[in-house]
């Protein structure tokens, strides 16, 4: 039995439902999961300011559930700071949906492209790809000018059309052989687009979920030395004492 | 039900047994697998000449079994040419053990190191890492001066010691946070070493196997456009006609 | 008249005093400045978790003072997320102490090294340097195993010795021609070390302050298109309404 | 007297004739040469699968002639595996036509482009250029959609036109200052195109031939340590015993 | 009091006047400056040959004035050799206008573009950006086909139009968020263009001037170890003995 | 008949003799050559200042001889500016000894190292290698602390020993498989060192000479578009009118 916590770092109930549907569809029978959102934060993450407002709430909800789960997904394609923060304070695997889909994409084709929402994500995701180290495998990051809040309306057809247009351009103009859907709000759009374009299309939520199952089956969690080592105890001011419990109380070597 | 063919591209029966044990241990109940070797080829792959002698036999055994299996592992850490050749002629996923472990390593720590056999693999695997595009994530490629044929003797202790020595150096001197075992012959050495070093240690055979299961569950196979598109029919001389069956007979666009 | 707000993103009063002394020493007569800390947050930033806990408080204090100041320093060497968040919501220049010192270092010598505190900053600052794009100009990131909370004690001699040891090694072994002090807590240590090593030594706080004065004299602020464009209005949950005032209310184009 | 063996790794007699004509035209009086093809293999190399089928035959023909020649050309622009395999088993220089022309191109202009056949060579030759390490000198790899088997027909005009179109675009749109002809089948097309475009145009076959003459006059052969060191003896199964003669029988150090 | 020597390395009186106007406008009250040109050299620097003809005269004029000034600008955007030569023979800061503007640009936006004169500067400035190490921050180098000698005519409108056209394309097509004016002859065009494009536009002359003031206020000069160490005494033939005075007479260590 | 001008850009008669001996030894019977030095300039080039003093004299001597020769070597390992300047003003091939040896080294082994004189060449030649684009092929640049003026004394043994020591370290510690001698003064030391180290050792003077012969036999010269296009006519002040004759008088397109 594997228990996965899927953290939607924005407060949109629609996103929670999307993640629920996707995880229902792809999780193994032996996997249990729960989707949660921060109690405080923005309703969408459309840039770094939004991310900044979502971080503390994301950490807080993680701390509340961490003891009862075996693996964690931060379901935002922005390469959020919280992925790295949570790895420091847990010995259980934490995974972001961008890095999960990008590394799987590298195993499926020579080059991948990301199709995402507003144009700010062009430079931001280009930077994330560089951070992951796979810039030479990335054909392009293409933006659609969709707002994150566009997702969740009844009518998905125009969203899908906008995404398909850019994905098609990535394949025919940029040399992409694989497409990564660059927003959690696009969860569930993968297979229809894959059929239309005839190239692999990756939903990062599925990728992260399956990677956590893989890690569980193989007995893996992230390294706890150096980059993700547990931070040492320090004084916190005007923050819930729960935050302090995550620190290591080992004497500094 | 998923049927995986594990191709050991050398002719060592010991390697076949190792792969069998590892796959038995980690494959899901719903996965069937078979380990095969080429009928002709070298007993070990210790460089590019050996690889050159193994390629045709690897393709031949693949062609024989391809219709009856759903996914394929080429179980040599050398980033063999055959992985790319086989992707051209099949629409079912083919995966090498080096790329599988390297991309998973990137999800487990900031930097990984590879510990492998003779010193020629230093430059060769450095080049492979660069080809995969993750050179900035690679702390080092360390060699042990072991011969591939050293694996399979009764006594594994000295092999393990040699590997541990280099892996320890990778962690303490090079900044590695994850270790990739750089030879199929090291299959099964992962968990003991992981316990000793307290960092994730990856057996590429397990990684490839689990990635194929993941692809199966998510309905993925490699892209068939551009790099891995099916080659067009051409005349073959003095080769088994089976080789020609793999060509596409579509008219060139 | 230029009014600069220096934000110390941790809550250490000692750091505030240090920043006050440094700014007093180097600011032009025509520059006014104020040092502030978040009301809530960690007493030191020793990794990503600490940063995650400091972000919201940093944004909050910024929003409170933004209208009354002309330029802003985020005085933490960690390349904090907040620098980028604040640039989105202000049209006045915001600068981090790491990027300020690193780009000036490139004008003073062929290669620079960073000397910082605990070993986690090795990979983290290496990544930051890569993000700034100047990895080929960086000779090394060296860590001292000092804790951030070590700074501010009466006795600075042992701290200075630890820093000097690594800086000397950077110069003699790594090819560094310039040293960047990699923690705000080292503010004020620059000139003594410069004299000892006979290479330029940069205090990021001074660098950021002088860059803001330069921008003011030349009439510059950061670009407001694409990466740092103002985020669009969205609903916030359980956050102070002040945070929402930063959004643009322009209709999405 | 220098004796060069030119190995055409496909089995096309037309290619053999082309190579013969080119070598006749450019070899020094003191150079003797012979053009050979593998006894078994594909009639054209249009991708990795074709290459996989050509490798064993290429090694075999090499082993047959190696004692009687002083230098070796593998006349395929695909950066074939066999170049590296043959270097391991010979102390006489072995050279591929891609690397020969690419490195000379770097001495003739700031950036070069490669004009080649079908679109698969776009990613494959981009990867080869990266392997050679000169990606920053490469303006583009342009494909013509020609088949390798198109070469050798009576009428060359349409082939030349297709190549000229892409070469012209490389010069006027991509910043190329030198053109490398990216297929052995284009041998002999260099000077006419050079005259039309008024930039250097390189035929890799000539480049490799002249490099071997240069090496001979200067007393050079490839390094035999590390990457190209002689492989150690091992058991071969169901392969001609000739293949085993290439191994070193030195005791492993 | 800071005394800055602005060296215009060409002999155009118009350029001298431009530099005078710009420095008048932006220098602090406490800064004195003088604009000089070499006594011998080309009237414009439009490539490497022109630069080669300007170097000796630039060094000569520098040697004449060096004792009486505190900081030096080489006012040519070509990353001239003389910047590095002069740093070797002086312990006072020497700065080029290209590197000054490029590093400031990195603090103002995610990516910058350079807009310059004739097309040769496309490859030359791309190379300079790579030398500074910030190639990943450079969106593009765009050329206008203007001649350097076009600057200085009565009518600036058509020059400005040509520059604006390329700068606009850099912003809208290449992702530039900051523009660097890529020729000293464009000095003074910054603010008008900045207003039109609504992104920061940098005049390298101002940037270099302000950086020298910053260095002065912070007590910085370039590193004198390794790359910019003083050259050792050697015999000069048929050159003014002034050139020899710059050598160090220390015994070689 | 091919007539090569070998320009020693320093004024050392010893260097002229060395170049004469080397060219005598390796030039083909059909090659004539002449060694010349500038009339004015430094007796050794040990850094950028020395190079700055040598440039004008190098151009001058080139202009004097250019009409009577077919190819040109600039015999200094510093990647001198003059190579690029001379290419602009001639349609006959001009080659530097560094780039000639470095590109040939890439054809002889996986990685090369440069062994050179004083420590300033460490950063300078690292930068040159990056400019040529082959940084990933360079194992190291090693310096010997020799002065350029040390070459030419009766006793070569200690020089050779210093070079051998670093070359040996490059091979055994840095992974070099080929050695490039990084100073024209080392001309003639190649074969003895090659025998001792058992790896290829390249004398850049021989490499440049043989590359010019190769270009001659194949009918090649450098590209004359874009980077090396002929500069347009402009006014020169206080320089010999010979310098102006090199300009193109074509109307600007």
What does this protein look like?
- The structure is a homohexamer of 253-residue chains.
- In chain A, 42% of the residues lie in helices and 16% in strands.
- The first copy, chain A, has helices at 13-26, 48-65, 81-88, 97-106, 121-132, 157-173, 190-197, 204-218, 242-245, and strands at 2-7, 31-36, 41-42, 71-74, 94-96, 112-116, 138-143, 178-181, 201-203, 236-237.
- In chain A, helix 1 packs across helix 8 (204-218).
- Chain A has 2 domains: 2-97 and 207-246, Rossmann fold (3-Layer(aba) Sandwich); 98-203, Rossmann fold (3-Layer(aba) Sandwich), CATH 3.40.50.
- Chain A is built from 9 helices and 10 strands.
- Chain A has a 4-stranded parallel β-sheet, sandwiched between helices.
- The longest helix of chain A is centred in the first third of the chain and has 18 residues, at 48-65.
- With 253 residues, the first copy, chain A, is of the alpha/beta class.
- Chains in contact: A-B, A-C, A-D, A-E, B-C, B-D, B-F, C-E, C-F, D-E, D-F, E-F.
- Chains A and C meet through strand 3, helix 2, helix 3, helix 5 and strand 10 of A and strand 3, helix 2, helix 3, helix 5 and strand 10 of C.
- Strand 10 of chain B pairs antiparallel with strand 3 (41-42) of chain D, so a sheet runs across the interface.
| Strand segment count of chain A | 10
Helix percentage range of chain A? 40-55%
Average the pLDDT over all residues of chain A and give the rounded result.
96
The unreliable regions of chain A are none
CATH architecture grouping of the largest domain in chain A: 3-Layer(aba) Sandwich
CATH classification class of the largest domain in chain A: Alpha Beta
The radius of gyration computed from the alpha-carbon positions of chain A, rounded to a whole number of angstroms, is: 18 Å
By DSSP (H or I, 4+ residues per run), the number of helices of chain A equals 9
Distance between the termini of chain A: 37 Å
Largest sheet of chain A: 4 strands, parallel
| Total discrete domains of chain A | 2
Give the quaternary arrangement of the chains.
Answer: homohexamer
Task: Report the largest inter-chain contact.
Answer: A-C, 52 and 52 residues
User: Secondary-structure element sequence of chain A?
Assistant: EHEEHEHEHEHEHEHEHEH
Beta-strand content bin of chain A: 15-25%
């Amino acid at each position: 039995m594997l228990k996965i916590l899927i953290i939607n770092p924005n407060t949109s109930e629609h996103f929670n439902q999307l993640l629920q549907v996707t995880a229902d569809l792809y999780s193994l029978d032996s996997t249990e999961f729960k989707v949660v959102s921060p109690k405080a934060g923005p309703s969408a993450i459309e840039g770094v300011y939004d991310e900044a407002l979502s971080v503390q709430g994301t950490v807080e909800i993680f701390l509340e559930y961490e003891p009862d789960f075996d693996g964690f997904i931060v379901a935002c394609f922005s390469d959020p700071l919280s992925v790295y923060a949570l790895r420091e304070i847990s010995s259980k695997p934490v995974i972001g949906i961008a890095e999960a889909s990008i590394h799987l994409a590298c195993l499926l084709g020579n080059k991948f492209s990301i199709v995402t929402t507003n144009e700010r994500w062009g430079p931001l995701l280009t930077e994330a790809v560089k951070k992951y180290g796979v810039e030479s495998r990335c054909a392009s990051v293409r933006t659609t000018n969709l707002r994150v809040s566009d997702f969740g309306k009844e009518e998905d057809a125009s969203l899908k059309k906008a995404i398909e247009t850019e994905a098609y351009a990535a394949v025919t103009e940029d040399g992409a052989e694989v497409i990564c859907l660059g927003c959690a709000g696009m969860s569930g759009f993968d297979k229809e687009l894959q059929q239309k374009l005839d190239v692999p299309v990756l939903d990062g939520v599925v990728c992260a979920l399956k990677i956590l199952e893989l890690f569980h089956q193989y007995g893996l969690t992230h390294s706890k030395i150096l980059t993700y080592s547990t931070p040492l105890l320090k004084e916190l001011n005007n923050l819930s004492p729960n935050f302090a419990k995550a620190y290591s109380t080992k004497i500094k070597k």
